[in-house]
Write a structure and sequence with these properties.
The complex is a heterodimer of chains A (444) and B (434). Chain A is of the alpha+beta class. Helix content of chain A is 51%, strand content 17%. In chain A, the strands form two sheets. Chain A has a six-stranded mixed β-barrel with strand order 3-4-9-6-8-7. In chain A, strands 2-10 form a two-stranded antiparallel ribbon. In chain A, a hairpin with a 7-residue loop joins strand 7 and strand 8. In chain A, helix 9 runs antiparallel to helix 12 and helix 10 runs antiparallel to helix 11. The longest helix of chain A has 57 residues. Chain B has 434 residues and is α+β, with helices and mostly antiparallel strands. Chain B contains 14 helices and 13 strands. In chain B, the strands form three sheets. Chain B has a six-stranded mixed barrel. Chain B has a four-stranded antiparallel beta sheet with strand order 4-12-1-13. The chains are: A alpha+beta (444), B alpha+beta (434). At the A-B interface, helix 2, helix 8 and helix 10 of A face helix 2, strand 13, helix 9 and helix 11 of B.
Chain lengths: 444, 434
């Protein structure tokens, strides 16, 4: 009778033992596969946490002659890991004039000084998105008419309620911005919005152009025409958001390889406080998962090895008889291994199905829970925080999928087979060293 | 032969089987213990993670319900200020970690010889060049400038509510004037008046981390002061410095106080708790929540913790099923023995108890051993990952849970797997068992 037939018959005839082995192998491999799939889902969850903690960096290129130019900006936003949410800003002072060339009235009450040349001037803030400006997010400015400035705008301006009423200006009117320095260039801008300040500026030391009444918001096009007029758009500052704040340093060093700008003259500031605060604890949570998985794998391996070695040791009697019949030791050992592998190949494949089912139900449960909690947060806090809600950039989350990967299945096959080979061989070793006679005398 | 003796003999004679069962119960209960310990560690760490988002609420004076007065600086609100008793009462609510108030005063700093400390980027005009934008703080660690990491402490320590007459200064100022920890600075509010001079001790030096030149921060008065010219002092010092300014002293009350909660999940309930304090007339104050970071991250964080919890539950449930499976195999393989015992006139209940005692004998040793081993495993595996070691702790409580649930599962598994055998008559059993 050859080895394969023996192995087959043993498996079929000893139904109870086979079923026990089958169940144990199935449960252990399902456990490991499910754990591994949940672990990779926790990595996605951790990535989502990092994403929602957000990270960004600011390039201050004010001290470079050409500052940030469009082609550099587009290279930056094409860098891997940088999101499409960005803001480009410039700050300057300009004189306000009407379309007929007369200077507009500005506010000087409460100013510490009105510097020479600034009698009709104010601070102009250029933005890709004016709603993200600190005046609106921190200093309590509110748009009362019109709209905010967006990326594609050119030659538009948002002025204060005071400036509008002092000079009889309203939405869609035009005004002229002029440089204060010797160059004397001028640019027209259409009023698209009017804002009001809800909090007072701490009076005392602000020069006239910084008074809230004299501040305006414009687009980067207007700034570039006024100060460069070379057909390109220039920006003093760029704020760029990154997808994963853990990558912030790498992304910044990648950005610094972009040529055409002297990075040494730029000041790059990282903004990832929330991530830095959470980093250690998040790492602890992730290593907790790793520890759990490690413990599970080690215990499963020991459990399997134990069951397998007892399985082999219970067959001393049989081994002795087979040896006496002239079968080679290797042949008998191989028979034991083949028996178990026959069961194992089947159970490992089946465990893919069972663990996928488990992962599926875990995923469904999780999804329900997450949406339910979101709603709770939204209803609880809606009333109180609505008024001071700042402009939140949308966070793109990666959807969490709990799926058993084929790679993990392969891992289970490899590790499982290795354990079977090892523990069967090791536990068979003492028996195999003995002569048939010794075995048969010992086995009683 | 009495039941206990039968059970004992079975366990000792069938060494292989007993050893297998012992090892399996030991392994599974170790796994369950580690799982329970990790569950606690997960909860603790998740709470800590939520805490890092720094949720707080701010109590402000409600300027719309208070009246307005007129003075030389224009109109000002005469609304009630937040007294330190109120702060104390709110701070005593469970779950509030700390509180801080922020008000700023421009102070002048001098050395012990009366010479002023020139600030960074001086203008060249004497009175302006000794001006420092000074924050009065109760817990400087919770000042928004430190929380946002605009400043970080380079040397020394933060100001806490026990400190009297102390100051934090910037590294730039410390370097410029050779000031170090323990040095004394004379501070005065208005050097041209009879305001008292207070000697404050430098207890901390901070670094300025942000780009001072970025104009996005230039939207209010604070921006006219270089961050290097900021300072932080305690309420006792400020009380004395402002002794001539009724209404502005810390003892007169604060215009706004930030309360930081340790777990943002409880923010809502803590605010409700605060609003129940009767001695505070809430018509005069408003509460605003600051938990944007938490709101943004909450759903991802709860995903994370429910994933970990599920992971552990899956592990514990599967381990229980392994035990149940092996036990039922154990009982089923003994149909023959059961039949013989029944035929010998031993009652079914007695046989059942024998099985339970056998397992009990084994479990009595494997449960405590798993407690010891899992304690060691938790400690050593944890230490591979640094900080986690402090979190995963197997407690006696976990042990009692595993024992309790374990015994119930063991007994149930035996009972259930005995049902088919016990229903049969001895004759049926013996004829069947072949």
């Amino acid at each position: 009778m050859n080895l394969w037939k023996r192995a087959y018959l043993h498996t079929v005839r000893k139904k109870g033992k086979t079923i026990l082995m089958f169940c144990i192998l199935l449960i252990v491999s399902t456990l490991i596969l499910t754990c591994l799939s949940i672990q990779s889902a926790t990595n996605t969850a951790a990535l989502n946490i990092r994403k929602s903690l957000m990270g960004s960096f600011t390039i201050n290129a004010k001290h470079i002659d050409t500052q940030l130019e469009d082609y550099i900006v587009s290279e930056i936003i094409n860098t891997d890991g940088i999101t499409s949410n960005y803001n480009l800003r410039s700050y300057y002072h300009a004189e306000y004039c009407g379309m007929d060339g007369h200077a507009l009235k500005t506010t000087s009450d409460g100013a510490a000084e009105v510097p020479e040349g600034y009698e009709h001037a104010g601070k102009i803030v250029s933005n890709t998105h004016s709603d993200a400006d600190t005046y609106f997010t921190e200093a309590g400015f509110e748009l009362i008419e019109g709209r905010h400035i967006v990326a594609d705008d050119g030659n538009v301006i948002i002025i204060s309620e005071a400036l509008a009423s002092q000079n009889g200006l309203s939405i869609s009117d035009y005004l002229v911005l002029g440089t204060i320095e010797e160059t004397d260039s001028q640019v027209e801008a259409r009023i698209v919005g009017i804002f009001t300040a809800t909090m007072p500026l701490d009076a005392g030391i602000a020069p006239s152009y910084d008074l809230y009444e004299n501040v305006s918001f414009s687009d980067n096009e207007t700034y570039s025409q006024l100060y460069y007029n070379d057909g390109n758009t220039h920006y003093q500052y760029g704020d760029f958001n990154v997808d994963d704040p853990a990558e912030l340093d790498t992304i910044i060093s990648n950005v610094k390889t972009i040529s055409g700008i002297t990075w040494d003259d730029c000041i790059i500031t990282k903004n990832d406080v929330d991530y830095q605060n959470a980093k250690t604890v998040l790492g602890t949570l992730q290593s907790l998962v790793t520890i759990i998985i490690l413990v599970v794998i080690v215990i499963s391996v020991v459990l399997l090895a134990l069951v397998l070695s007892l399985w082999v040791r219970n067959r001393i009697h049989e081994t002795g008889i087979l040896l006496a019949m002239g079968f080679r030791k290797v042949n008998i050992l191989t028979q034991h291994i083949v028996e178990i592998l026959m069961i194992a190949v089947l159970t490992f494949a089946l465990s893919f199905v069972t663990s996928s089912l488990m992962a599926q139900s875990v995923g469904d449960r999780l999804l329900q829970q997450a949406t339910a909690e979101d709603q709770v947060v939204a209803t609880n806090l809606a009333g109180e925080t609505a008024e001071e809600k700042t402009v939140e950039k949308p966070v793109s989350r990666t959807s969490i999928e709990i799926k058993v990967s084929l790679l993990n299945l392969l891992l289970v096959y490899v590790i499982g087979t290795a354990i079977i080979l090892l523990s069967v061989s090791i536990s068979a070793y003492p028996i195999m060293r003995m002569k048939p006679k010794e075995i048969l005398t010992k086995m009683s | 032969m009495i039941l206990l003796k039968r059970a004992f003999l079975y366990v000792t004679r069938k060494r292989g089987k007993s050893l297998l069962l012992f090892s399996i119960i030991f392994l599974i209960s170790t796994l369950a213990l580690c799982g329970l310990a990790s569950l606690d560690a997960e909860e603790e760490t998740s709470t800590e993670l939520r805490g890092t988002t720094g949720a707080s609420f701010t109590v402000n004076r409600n300027l719309s319900t208070g009246g307005w007065g007129n003075g030389n600086g224009g109109s000002y609100s005469i609304q009630e200020l937040i007294s330190s008793e109120m702060v104390e009462k709110i701070a005593n609510i469970d779950g509030i970690e700390a509180y801080d108030t922020s008000s700023t005063t421009i102070l002048h700093f001098y050395d012990q010889n009366g010479k002023y400390y020139e600030c960074i980027n001086p203008t060249g005009y004497a009175p302006a060049d000794s001006q420092y934008y000074t924050n009065t703080t109760i817990n400087s660690q919770y000042s928004s400038l430190f929380l946002s990491q605009t400043f970080t402490l380079a040397e020394g320590r933060h100001i806490t509510d026990n400190d009297k007459n102390v100051i934090l200064i910037s590294k730039d100022i410390a370097d410029k004037h050779g000031l170090k920890l323990g040095d004394k600075i004379s501070a005065v509010n208005d050097p041209d008046s009879n305001d008292p001079t207070v000697k404050v001790e430098v207890i901390g030096i901070f670094n300025v981390n942000i780009d001072n030149t970025d104009e996005k921060n230039n939207y209010n008065m604070a921006s006219y002061y270089d961050y290097s010219n900021y300072a932080f002092t305690d309420i006792t010092a400020m009380e004395k410095l402002l002794t001539n300014y009724k209404g502005e002293r810390p003892s007169d009350g604060y215009s706004s106080v930030d309360f930081f909660v340790s777990d943002p999940e409880n923010l809502e309930s803590i605010i409700i708790e605060a609003q129940k304090i009767n001695s505070i007339n809430w018509d005069n104050f408003t509460i605003t929540t600051n938990n944007e970071v938490y709101e943004r991250t909450a759903s991802s964080m709860s995903d994370m913790s429910s994933l970990i919890r599920t992971l552990i539950i899956v592990i514990v449930v599967i381990s229980m099923s392994i035990i149940t499976l092996i036990l039922s195999m154990w009982v089923k393989s003994r149909v023959q023995e059961t039949g013989i015992l029944l035929a010998a006139g031993i009652s079914k209940v007695s046989i059942l108890f024998q099985h339970i005692f056998e397992v009990g004998f084994i479990a009595i040793f494997s449960f405590p051993l798993s407690y010891l081993v899992s304690k060691i495993v938790a400690r050593n595996v944890g230490s591979l990952f640094g900080k986690t070691a402090d979190n995963v702790i197997v407690t006696a409580h976990h042990f009692s849970m595993v024992c309790g649930v374990g015994i119930v599962i063991l007994i149930l598994a035996i009972l259930i797997s005995c049902i088919p055998t016990m229903r049969l008559k001895p004759k049926e059993i013996l004829s069947k068992m072949s």
